[in-house]
Records
---
Amino acid sequence: MPDDYSNSVFDSFSFPGALYANSYNSGNIEYSGDRDLFRIFLNAGQTYNFDLTAWDSYDGTLDDPYLRLLSGSGFELAWDDDSGVGLESFIVYTPSASGYYYLEASDSSLTYTGTYTISSMADDYRDSIFNPYEALGTVNVGGSSTGWMENGGDVDVFAVYLEAGKNYTASVRGWDSSGGTLYDPYMRILDGAGNQLLWDDDSGFGLDAQVTATAPATGIYYVEVSSFDLEDWGTYSVSVVNNPGDIFRVSGLKSKMQINDFDPSLDQIFLEDAKFEGLGAGSLDGTPLTNPKSFVANTSGLATNKKAAQIIYETDTGKLWYDSDGKKGDADAMHFATITNKAALSISDFELF
């Protein structure tokens, strides 16, 4: 049986397979001791992910693939046996020089035969604002961008232009909100010099990351995306929105948050649906309360709805209460926040998240 690809950089009887960034090829280990070589051009400073998949990923019949990365002269630069799915091989590599390299596929014991698939994937976005070799992601205020954590430990950086004094919410959505396949997104907000300003893990929907803050100065900021444990990979979406007013997030019934200078024409109070569950289900960007019986304003601080949960605004003190059973006149409501300026509130000032 003729060999499909050359088995050495110095093999003059057959030719290496061709592979490019963001592409794949397939091959066959035809006999014991067979090796297949693939030639690929790599750019200095660009991070690449190389996969050799077969039986475990239904990409071939080879049981235990083995992968090596070689220099243009055949010197071994990296190798892997079982870092991929099951017994499959996976290498992450960032070359220091541009040029042609080789990937070598074989059976781990040089004994068995079978088919396989070999692939190369270039990192979509740079992992540091100081890396000039990879693309810098961008996200516009009011818009969103998508990305991919190609491997555990990957980091993607997006630039965004913010204006001083304006309030913004940055979100990274993954599996829980159907924003992608990344299980547990993690986010950092950096200033123009790369200094960390904020970070978040799970303040969005489920395990999604979300932060809300006011920009201290006008200029370029950076949203840095990764997975929480730096081991997961998958797709995600990142967005930044300008909040016309302030968003006050209440995550606990016993927080007794002090809400200062509340402006009903601009500001919103977000209530976590897991704690205020009697009011309904929320969403990533907030779900407005629509049942008029869910809110009442009076001076007694007591519920008036007999059949459902209710928010009570005690107008003379500014206190906000939550009554989970809605029993009329029941005094077991929880005091969760105070509007210090005693602004006139309505049901439209509340949303669930």
Note: The chain has no helices and 27 strands.
---
Amino acid sequence: MGRKSGKRHKMKALLYSAMMAAAPLAVADISLGNGETTTATDESTAAEAQQYVQMGYFIGVGGVVTFKNGRKLKEVVEAIPLSNILLETDCPYLAPVPFRGKRNSSEYISYVAEEVARLKGISYEEVLCATEENGKRLFKIK
């Protein structure tokens, strides 16, 4: 079994276990597509992300969505509902443009939110409100 197929098998086993336990989980960094280690596989697609969403998962979106070569993650963001998106920093790695290549910081999350808003054709404020509510749902915060 190759490395990528091994990662895919591990992810499917994790998903199956979570479904059987009815556990709330977040899938982070789906579809980085840039060779970095991901929670999902590097071959993940918008269709796979939609399957995770249908199972009740959230998709974490970080600085890669601002990269010119972040096409796959941009497609994922466009394909899934805002109600299943979480914003993340990947700190200290993968800082968004214009800080790419530098140490990441939670200060930069606004760049991720702006790109999600642009891709979704909605306001920055809508992204902030929705992703805050998503985080509260995930962590069961009232």
Note: The chain is about 45% helix and 5% strand.
---
Amino acid sequence: MLFPRRWSRLFTRQLATLLEEGLTPYAALQLIRSQQRGKGGREILNRTLARLREGDPLSRTLRGYPRQFSREYIAALEWAEETGYSDNLVIALRFLSGDLDRRTPRARPVIDPDTGSAMWSALDDLERLSIPSPRKPKHDLRA
């Protein structure tokens, strides 16, 4: 199965949005699956949901689709899962979809209570993984 990059980017944005609204990854993926028109997307999501039910983390389930999800993509998800914070999963997904950088209002720094200085820990960690931020299209087709 080969999908255009925009499928992966749309999938990533949808997942991030649903997680921000408080859904579990499993429930979010069920909703995304229900919207899939193509057989390939439904098949990936069916397999992913089955593996999540078995207890596999999201990063491990998506690792089986290297044409859709790069090593860097999986590394960002693994980082988020290792931190144990669901907010970091959303940050990683937003970063991977190109929706997040230091200029984005969502990327507010955390204030260190000891020093009072801003900490960009999540973005710094993602950047240390050497994940290139996706390039924005030259023309916004939504306008």
Note: DSSP finds seven helices and two strands in the chain.
---
Amino acid sequence: MDKFVVRMTNVCAGPFPESHMDFEAASGEITAIIGSNGEGKTTLALRLAAACSAGKPMPGMKPLPPFNVIYQTAEDGLEDTVKPRLIEADADQDRIINIREDKKSLHLLDSRIEKAIVQCGARLLILDPLQRLPRTRLHRLPCGGKKRACGGQAAEKQNCPYRRA
């Protein structure tokens, strides 16, 4: 084989750089997953939801008992995209919750977010993608001290980390 290529079998692995993949979040904390279309933001968000629901940590995650996750999507279909990806990621389907939007679209000021967190005992809220939810011009939201979206305020009030993809 040419000298300008190397097979990974010939590379010695160093220590895992955990600081590059830190999924630790305090209650009410907001984290954004930012990137261009097709870079895997939704895949990462779904894998995180699956890991949390099944209690099977991703690299860089501390082991935790499984818990309920609200995964809200504004772009992908639940039946043809979200569910198959959650199955592939070995999610506990009973612990992944979606707020119904068949009669009324969800927005960041929607009281259903807090109601769902409370009713389902969710410990993680994922909004994917935040920009597609109606009324989400973040600079216009009454968010207080930290730049926090109002969906995040409901999550913080209920001690539920908040992720937006």
Note: The chain is about 25% helix and 10% strand.
